[in-house]
Amino acid sequence: MITSTINSCPPHPSTYSRAKRLLDIIGSLIGLLILAIIFLPIAIAIKLDSPGSIFYSQTRYGLYGQPFQIWKFRSMIQNAERLKYRVPNQAKGLIFKNENDPRVTRIGRFLRRTSLDELPQFWNVLIGDMSLVGTRPPTTDEIKYYSHYHWQRLNVKPGITGEWQVNGRSAVHDFEAVVTFDLRYQMQWHFWYDLVIVWKTIYVVFAQIGAC
Fold it and tell me: What are the residues whose beta carbons fall under 8 Å from the beta carbon of 139, sequence distance 6 or more?
């Protein structure tokens, strides 16, 4: 879904930065190597914990509103999307969060707390759908209600991590705060800023800051 709002904006410098793309390729290869090493125990744990697939795929929207399939380790029961209407949304605005979501499995809570569920997204980075650092990729349910202001988030590639991750992570419950973080990233972006966010992300993940 490409809007005239996005098309009317000049390309963001991060979208044609060779240094950023090189960082993405190197980082994604390292991430996929880690995934290969720990894949088997995670896959077994997911299968033993609840019936269903090992991976979870969902349509998200990336650069200029282009749809793509995002990949994660499954952290919820199978067909969890069909039960979403039963779970109250604790977030404000166009995001969905519930700290005690009953659809999340036992191993799923561990995977989310440690961010291990995100590892398959390194494949998305390698093929160019995502970047290591960027904005949060929205869902179909979210973009239906986007205003002109919100579409500006998609002037850069979505990232595995970003400003919103290192400034609250899952503790951020206000969509407008996420938008503010994403637009601030766009304004402040330069190659070294990506490296700073990557290092901050490593600290946040290992310290489990804002995890749930």
Answer: 58, 59, 60, 61
Would the pLDDT of 1 be above 50?
A: no
Query: CA 167: distance to chain centroid?
Result: 14
- Contacts for 102 with CB less than 8 Å, ≥ 6 apart: 87
The radius of gyration computed from the CA coordinates of the chain, to the nearest angstrom, equals 17
Token couple for 53: 């697939």
pLDDT grade, residue 14 (50/70/90)?
very high
**SS3 helix, strand, coil % of the chain, rounded to 5?**
55, 15, 30
12 CB contacts (<8 Å, ≥6 apart)?
A: 155, 156, 186, 189
- Residue-wise pLDDT for 103-149, tens only, equals 999 999 999 999 999 999 999 999 999 999 999 999 998 999 999 88
Assess whether pLDDT exceeds 80 at residue 77.
Answer: yes
Amino acid letter for position 44: I
